[in-house]
């Protein structure tokens, strides 16, 4: 089949039915090619009558009695002049080494293609079919059968002579024979028979359904799917027969095998040929249709269908009408269907044409998808099967898809696909960019441009940036943020942005972008200046990232004005880079900012800014009075005189009271509380804190003529001062608010104190007794002595070497041990001895001596 790939695609429309456009969305299962080359020349002068297919070659018989051996492209490799009339059947063995031929004039020949052996016989009737044993090339299987009026079996015996046996006769002409393994199937006018050559038994007879059809005009089609499955097609009927082994208990006089029909159904058209395709069937139909103008039927184009057999029906998978040459003149018997077992190849033979059908491969699938403009699916299929496709290229399909999207106006989709399709091909990328520029869609492709390992020329990126700068400042800023600065000439873009700012000097987007460009160019001072001007949140990140602390020494006020909290945190975190003295100097003219800085510094460390504590007193008094008193309490470096002066000038009573008390002038402090604050509770609290009897006396003296103060004292001093002292000094007849309640409270407090004391006493006595008992038990325990213990006086082993001799040892409760003779004489108390060691260390007498004598 020369020019098969190209010509087949061009001719596919010629073979398929244009009238079935309603099914065009369903992808065909097969593709078709015309067998050409030598076949074309043969069929111009002659007509095909039969053909047999082998994996390696084809054998074609003609009406003029010739047999041609062809390669699979249709080129003639060998020619045999067999007869002058029609060749009816050609049979090949599995090895392809022998060919059997029969013709209309009764000739039968078996020819060895690579040997000289052969068989020639002339019969007095037409021989319609011949079939060689599948293993004919082996010496044990030199058998073949012929079919005319009878079925004859030829076998070569051990004398190298051919022996003839009649297998069947009497049921009309035999029109088809198929031999598979040990089974021979043939068809005559009555039906289909199967013969087991191993057991020499005929095992079935499948009757013909439609006896009204002439068997010579509508011949039977037989096909073995495997060694046990025979497919029978006759007229419009198809039967699938399975040869099975019979149960030995059921045999008796029956054959060892039987046939079960597992599927039987009718078709719409007449069957001209059958072939298996996995679990499906390929059927060649002869079609007759009624004319609209005349009542008579006319011959239509033959159909090649793929069907799925079911037990009583079939499901159509695909159907194609084939335009073969001279189909109007052909009958059902003129068509044949042959197939190759090694490949899924199907040959439709008609007198003037041979068409080859094959399963569509991935290339064909992609062709169909592209034809239907299903580019996404085509690209996906090509990517999945890129190792198996031969005619297509993934990138070319992708480019076709991009072109299609551009034509549709889906520019964003086309640009997105560029990432996947163009890959790392810089030339293709640049071509696409220029195409998008031509159609005015540079913005669409900008976000998909390569910016990693593959990088285009800087001019490409600059061209896109200039395009955005003309119409879309925000888009321009986004690209500057997303694109690395190395992609383009930074200086050129900076100059362009500067030119635009001359026309619009307050544009925040352009200013921010210019600052980012300066950052890429490591011109951090300029970037910092713009960020501060704009009060941009990234200013602190810029300072930290590029260590710009030396550049901000004179910009501290600007930073503080922008965000005091962040600025102070940054300055305090980087004291090693910007000293506190430098910050204080810069903020000298802005005391409110200086206060924020020094306040946070003090909170972090009370001692770091100690030399500024005097200044802080004024700052707190001016800007943050609520924190002045906590500052005075926590600071140990604050000049108290200055603080007192500031507080007195501003009449800060609470702060003045604290400072007076801290400076030791508690009586003056108490006086201010009582006279200026007039807060008895605070006065009492102050007296409690100082715990000074004189202060209590002053407090009582000041309160004695003020009934509300007396009430406050009666309610609060019960635990610090004897209330009787206060009660005795109350003038007779003075009206005191809530006196009764106050006295009741004093009595309740007194009772509570008595109860507490009694409870504590009970607890103390119980604990003392418990501890005494524990001590007694501990002292009464024995003490273990061994060779390791020594006398604390003479430092000799406490136990003598001769334990038989008498000895005395004294062990004190402190666990110090002495030989009795080593102890000094008893002291002041006769009969009582003390541990010398514990007595010398003033740890107690070590009383309760244990004495061991032996």
Automatic annotation (TrEMBL):
The CHCR repeat boundaries are 568-712
PROSITE patterns (UniProt xref): CHCR (PS50236), ZF_RING_2 (PS50089)
- GO cellular component terms? clathrin-coated vesicle; cytosol; early endosome membrane; Golgi apparatus; HOPS complex; late endosome membrane; lysosomal membrane
Q: What keywords appear on the UniProt entry?
A: Autophagy, Cytoplasm, Cytoplasmic vesicle, Endosome, Golgi apparatus, Lysosome, Membrane, Metal-binding, Protein transport, Transport, Zinc, Zinc-finger
BP GO terms, sorted? cellular response to starvation; endosomal vesicle fusion; macroautophagy; protein targeting to vacuole
Q: Where is the RING-type domain?
A: 791-839
- State the annotated membrane topology for this chain: Peripheral membrane protein
Acidic residues bias locations: 14-26
Residue spans of biased composition, Basic and acidic residues class: 1-13
Renumbered to this chain, region (Disordered) spans 1-31
Q: Where in the cell is it found?
A: Cytoplasm, Cytosol; Early endosome membrane; Endosome membrane; Late endosome membrane
Pfam families named among the record's database cross-references: Beta-prop_Vps41 (PF23411), TPR_Vps41 (PF23556), zf-RING_Vps41 (PF23555)
InterPro entries named among the record's database cross-references? Beta-prop_Vps41, Clathrin_H-chain/VPS_repeat, TPR-like_helical_dom_sf, Vps41, Vps41/Vps8, WD40/YVTN_repeat-like_dom_sf, WD40_repeat_dom_sf, Znf_RING
Q: Which GO terms describe its molecular function?
A: zinc ion binding
Say which domain of life the source belongs to. Answer: Eukaryota
> What PANTHER family does the record point to?
VACUOLAR PROTEIN SORTING VPS41, VACUOLAR PROTEIN SORTING-ASSOCIATED PROTEIN 41 HOMOLOG
The Swiss-Prot or TrEMBL record describes its family as follows:
Belongs to the VPS41 family.
Name by which UniProt lists this protein = Vacuolar protein sorting-associated protein 41 homolog
From which organism does this entry originate?
Liparis tanakae (Tanaka's snailfish)
Gene name, per UniProt, is VPS41
């Amino acid at each position: 089949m020369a020019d098969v790939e190209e010509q087949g695609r061009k001719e596919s429309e010629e073979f398929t039915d244009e009238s079935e456009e309603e099914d065009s969305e369903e992808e065909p299962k097969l593709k078709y090619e015309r067998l050409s080359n030598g076949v074309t020349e043969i069929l111009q002068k002659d007509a095909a009558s039969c053909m047999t297919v082998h994996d390696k070659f084809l054998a074609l018989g003609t009406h003029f009695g010739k047999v041609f051996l062809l390669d699979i492209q249709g080129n003639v490799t060998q020619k045999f002049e067999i007869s002058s009339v029609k060749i009816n059947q050609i049979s090949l063995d599995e090895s392809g080494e022998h060919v059997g031929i029969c013709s209309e004039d009764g000739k039968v020949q078996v020819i060895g293609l690579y040997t000289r052996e052969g068989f020639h016989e002339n019969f007095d009737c037409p021989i319609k079919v011949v079939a060689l044993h599948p293993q004919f090339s082996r010496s044990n299987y030199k058998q073949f059968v012929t079919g005319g009026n009878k079925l004859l079996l030829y076998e070569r015996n051990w004398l190298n002579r051919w022996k003839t046996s009649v297998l069947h006769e009497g049921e009309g002409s035999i029109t088809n024979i198929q031999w598979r393994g040990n089974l021979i199937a043939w068809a005559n006018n009555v039906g289909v028979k199967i013969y087991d050559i191993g057991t020499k038994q005929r095992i079935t007879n499948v009757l013909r359904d439609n006896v009204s059809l002439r068997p010579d005009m509508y011949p039977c089609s037989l096909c073995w799917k495997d060694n046990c499955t025979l497919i029978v097609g006759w007229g419009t009927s198809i039967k699938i027969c399975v040869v099975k082994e019979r149960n030995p208990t059921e045999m008796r006089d029956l054959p060892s095998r039987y046939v079960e029909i597992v599927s039987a159904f009718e078709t719409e058209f007449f069957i001209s040929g059958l072939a298996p395709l996995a679990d499906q069937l390929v059927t060649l139909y002869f079609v007759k249709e009624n004319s609209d103008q005349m009542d008579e039927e006319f011959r239509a184009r033959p159909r090649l269908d793929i069907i799925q057999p079911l037990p009583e029906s079939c499901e159509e998978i695909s159907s194609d009408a084939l335009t073969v040459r001279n189909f109007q003149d052909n009958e059902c018997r003129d068509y044949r269907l042959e197939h190759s077992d090694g490949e899924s190849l199907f040959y439709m033979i008609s007198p003037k044409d041979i068409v080859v059908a094959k399963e569509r491969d991935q290339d064909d699938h992609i062709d169909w998808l592209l034809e239907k403009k299903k580019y996404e699916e085509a690209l996906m299929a090509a990517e999945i099967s890129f190792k198996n496709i031969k005619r297509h290229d993934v990138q070319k399909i992708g480019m076709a898809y991009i072109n299609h999207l551009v034509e549709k106006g889906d520019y964003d989709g086309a640009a997105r696909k560029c990432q996947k399709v163009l890959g790392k091909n810089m030339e293709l990328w640049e071509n696409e960019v220029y195409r998008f520029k031509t159609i005015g869609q540079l913005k669409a492709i900008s976000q998909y441009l390569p910016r990693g390992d593959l990088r285009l020329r800087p001019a490409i990126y600059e061209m896109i940036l200039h395009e955005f700068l003309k119409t879309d400042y925000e888009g321009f800023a986004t690209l500057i943020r997303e694109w690395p600065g190395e992609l383009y000439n930074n200086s050129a873009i900076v100059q362009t942005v500067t030119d635009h700012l001359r026309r619009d000097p307050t544009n925040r987007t352009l200013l921010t972008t210019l600052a980012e460009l300066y950052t890429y160019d490591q011109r951090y001072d300029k970037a910092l200046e713009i960020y501060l001007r704009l009060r941009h949140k990234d200013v602190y990140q810029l300072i930290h990232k590029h260590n710009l602390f030396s550049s901000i020494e004179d910009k501290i006020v600007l930073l503080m004005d922008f965000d005091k909290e962040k600025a102070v945190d940054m300055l305090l975190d980087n004291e090693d880079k910007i000293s506190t003295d430098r910050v204080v100097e810069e903020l000298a003219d802005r005391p409110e900012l200086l206060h924020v800085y020094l306040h946070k510094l003090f909170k972090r460390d009370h001692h770091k800014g100690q030399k500024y504590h005097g200044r802080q007193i004024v700052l707190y008094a001016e800007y943050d009075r609520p924190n002045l008193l906590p500052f005075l309490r926590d600071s140990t470096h604050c000049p108290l005189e200055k603080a007192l002066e500031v507080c007195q000038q501003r009449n800060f009573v609470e702060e003045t009271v604290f400072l007076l008390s801290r400076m030791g002038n508690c009586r003056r402090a108490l006086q201010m509380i009582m006279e200026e604050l007039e807060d008895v509770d605070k006065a009492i609290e102050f007296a409690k804190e100082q715990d000074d009897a004189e202060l209590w006396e002053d407090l009582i003296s000041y309160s004695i003529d003020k009934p509300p103060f007396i009430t406050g004292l009666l309610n609060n001093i019960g635990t610090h001062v004897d209330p009787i002292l206060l009660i005795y000094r109350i003038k007779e007849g003075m009206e005191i608010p809530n006196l009764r309640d106050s006295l009741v409270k004093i009595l309740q407090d007194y009772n509570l104190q008595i109860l507490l004391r009694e409870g504590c006493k009970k607890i103390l006595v119980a604990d003392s007794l418990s501890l005494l008992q524990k001590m007694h038990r501990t002292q009464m325990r024995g003490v273990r002595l061994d060779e390791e213990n020594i006398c604390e006086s003479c430092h000799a082993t406490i136990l003598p070497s001769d334990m038989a001799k008498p000895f005395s040892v004294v062990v004190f409760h402190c666990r110090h041990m002495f030989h009795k003779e080593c102890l000094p004489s008893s002291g002041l108390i006769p009969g009582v001895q003390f541990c010398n060691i514990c007595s010398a260390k003033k740890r107690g007498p070590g009383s309760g001596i244990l004495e061991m004598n032996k």
